User: Which sequence fits this backbone?
């Protein structure tokens, strides 16, 4: 399974949740599969999906799902100790780990080699870290949504991208409709 | 009221409830005051761009944010300021220690000090420079201005403002 296939299995359960989605192709894929006002698409700033998601989760009570990638977590490694030490039980971080920088031509990441992001997250102090096969991601997400504990899911999937257009929505529109969904 | 308590009281007056910090020797007192404030959630970050991500999320969650950091962080955060904070039109007060100015003992700090205002100007970020301790009187208005216009705003605070480095 590639990322877009994993996202497809998640859509029924995350469609009505607040989702902060990683820059580039992940946002394009989610946008094409299930555009919702409750999706915050990152159009720039690689690496900050988990930080934005954590800030949002700490600021209000609704559940927040940040969909991140292995390359983006590698670029903002400092996020994992911050997440571990500022527990928000309404926060779910899904790291789609396809071992590659998908948006830039599928160059391999270190997460696809010797580095285990689940082990790093655990070493940083995160208490509820699950690594799963791509096929099991939806079941793990269901468990996390039904539970009341901050969860990090590392979904090991294959490298590859669905072909979708870039998001042309104005960033202020994305932000405004997302804030209305947060406040509703 | 000392200057650190005065700064925190202006943050609270402006309903700023979510503050992230990356330490600087000059900011130690104000960071302590933020940590002690019962009205502010203080979340230290490991790098300033990460901190701006946290602030962006908190803002969208309905909390007014602020970041406290050193001016060297301008070099770290230009992309985040342009493609997150400015692109999505979010307010972000940035209380910045302006290292490398008069009374600076560490020569290397001057290397970023000479770029600080030029970079902020290039980014069209409204910038205020606190040099005398009485300049803190403007903070309340600057914070109101920041949330009025939904922009990142820089408040540079130099060594003279903070009363030197303690050994001068």
Assistant:
């Amino acid at each position: 399974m590639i990322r877009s296939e994993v996202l497809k299995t998640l859509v029924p359960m995350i469609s009505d949740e607040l989702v902060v989605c990683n820059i580039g192709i992940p946002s394009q894929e989610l946008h094409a599969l299930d555009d919702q006002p409750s999706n915050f698409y990152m159009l720039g700033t690689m690496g900050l999906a988990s930080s934005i998601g954590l800030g949002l989760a700490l600021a209000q009570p609704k559940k927040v799902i940040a969909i991140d990638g292995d390359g983006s977590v590698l670029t903002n490694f400092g996020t994992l100790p911050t997440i571990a030490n500022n527990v928000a039980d309404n926060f779910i971080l899904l790291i789609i780990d396809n071992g590659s920088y998908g948006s830039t031509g599928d160059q391999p990441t270190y997460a696809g080699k010797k580095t285990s992001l689940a082990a790093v997250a655990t070493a940083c102090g995160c208490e509820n870290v699950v690594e799963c096969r791509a096929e099991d991601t939806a079941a793990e997400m269901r468990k996390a949504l039904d539970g009341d504990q901050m969860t990090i899911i590392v979904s090991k999937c294959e490298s590859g991208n669905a072909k979708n257009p870039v998001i042309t929505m104005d960033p202020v529109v994305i932000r405004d409709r997302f804030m209305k969904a947060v406040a509703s | 009221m000392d200057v650190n308590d005065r700064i925190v009281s202006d943050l609270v007056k402006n309903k700023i409830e979510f503050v992230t910090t990356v330490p600087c020797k000059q900011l130690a007192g104000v960071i302590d005051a933020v940590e002690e404030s019962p009205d502010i959630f203080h979340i230290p970050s490991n790098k300033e761009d990460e901190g701006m991500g946290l602030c962006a999320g908190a803002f969208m969650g309905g909390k007014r944010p602020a970041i406290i950091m050193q001016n060297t962080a301008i070099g770290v955060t230009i992309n985040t300021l342009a493609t997150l904070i400015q692109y999505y039109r979010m307010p972000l007060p940035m209380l910045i220690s302006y290292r490398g100015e008069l009374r600076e003992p560490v020569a290397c700090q001057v290397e970023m000090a000479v770029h600080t205002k030029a970079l902020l100007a290039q980014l069209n970020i409204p910038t205020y420079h606190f040099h005398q301790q009485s300049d803190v009187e403007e903070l309340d208005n600057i914070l109101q201005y920041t949330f009025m216009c939904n922009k990142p705003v820089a408040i540079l605070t130099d060594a003279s403002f903070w009363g030197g480095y303690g050994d001068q």
